[in-house]
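MODEL INPUT / OUTPUT PAIR
PAIR INDEX: 1
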Amino acid sequence: LVPADRAKALDPLLDRTRCVALGLGGPTGPSGGSAAPSSGSAPGAGGGGYGSFDAALLGDFPFRAASLALASDPAWKREGKGFVNAAAGIRAAVPGPGLVLASSRPLEGLIEAAKAPGPSPLPARLEDLASARIAIWVPDPFSGLIASIVGESMDIPAVGILVAADPDGDARSPGYAATVAFLMSDADSARIFRPALRLAWYALARALLGADADGALGLSFSLDGEVYWAGGARLTANSLAGALARIKEGLGTGSARPR
């Protein structure tokens, strides 16, 4: 999701990570502000065509040891309540035991949010699905992001798309059992746009899932109130990572809103 030279700066943190919450943004950044480097920004932070990101990492991060590790590494310099790796364009902070925050932008907003968390960005209607090992939530997907990915505009008033995946337990060929859900504003919209959502899935599966697309095209979708969903997709880790990378590329276009 970030160039290898920038991602390498996070390797020591990722080795200790159990769970990651990641927000991706395009040229305007996840908060709607400019993602281009501003006065005091780290070189490459939010710029260089890579868009922006915010991340919260939960894991085995002893507060004092993690802070000391960043402070003693010459690549990281103190900046406000955190540290910045100017060469990588990444900021990091350890606000408490077991939590590391990382971003391509100044960290003050993330640190305040960690102190007083707000409501989940995931709709309550999809909470059960979102508890999967991997959950990819794309809000307001047809406002520009889908068009940037599939090359065709689709006028569908969807609230969002969720892909939820858990390991399928196949030791011989490890993969993930995935569910795809389109959330509409109400049951009538889901029913009216059902054919369009099916066509949208054909286009998205081919654009996002690479070698796994053929198997995902045959999913049997069902209506459940305002949700149009299908389970039973078998995806590899590579296809899920590729889907995230293509979503990030889509956010890098001017027509796609940040996520």
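PAIR INDEX: 2
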Amino acid sequence: IHEETALTPEARRAIATHTFEVLEPNQSKLIAPLSTVNQQLTSGVDVLSSPSISVYAGAAPGLWRFDPSEDPGGTMATLITDTGSSVVRDVFLHDASEIAYVALSTGFHTCVYEPGEGIDEDEPCQSHSGGALPSDDITAIMRLEVEASDRLLVGTTKGLYIAGNVSDPVAGGSVRLDNKRIGAFARDAERLWIATSAGLFRYDIGGASPFGAEPMHQPVPSEGAGDNLTDLALGSGGTLWVSSNNGISRLSPGSPGVWT
């Protein structure tokens, strides 16, 4: 699930195809399988919105790019990198480093990425696995800079890996949430939220060493999504959405926040 608040309503409507459905407020739809490559989507998406709209998503057998502004019918897709039998689980475009991170079931790739242009299809992606990773089965990935610290966060089926050196990401990192499956990341100016198989956790990223300890647990009511979370997303106005096989819950900001 991906909310792109920076896009205008016209641009959001331009993204909507039979592959990706854009949900306007108070609207819901059934999302169709990825008929373009005869496979279902295997990962979340990241959106490149300048100068034109491109959508990156994982679908067997690799990472694909959709350009709905050039192909309004959504009948064409460009294969960016073929990952073979490895399943693409997540995509994260990092403008500052000009690197695209692609989470796979066998590690992760770093690809050359130019903001405003997209992933360079002519440059081979670099593979990363093993090392200090708790598992090569990567489920989520995000890079962020907080308080002059540059960190790569790698979610796996066996815990959260925090790379100490983004230039050599699988060497010398630390592991948090040991043996918990990481479902997804989301961040705002103050917090990093982590959906896991053991519930919702958060880091307050405004401090000097936000990742020096285990994250704080944020209980989710059992009558809603519960603990075994699969995904999350930040909505407008500071709301947080979490999902599981039990349903979807929303945390509205406040002291304390209100779950619905």
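PAIR 2 NOTE: Residues 9-15 form the longest helix (7 residues).
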